[in-house]
Amino acid sequence: MSISQACTRVVLVPLKRFDDAKSRLREALTDSEVTELAIRLATGVLDAARPLPTVVVCDDEEVAGFARRCSADVFRSSFQNLNGSVSDAYRHVGHFNQVIVAHGDLRNPEGLGRFTPGEGVTIVTDQRHDGTNVLALPSGLDFRFSYGAGSALRHAQEAARLG
Question: How many domains does the chain contain in total?
Answer without folding.
Answer: 1
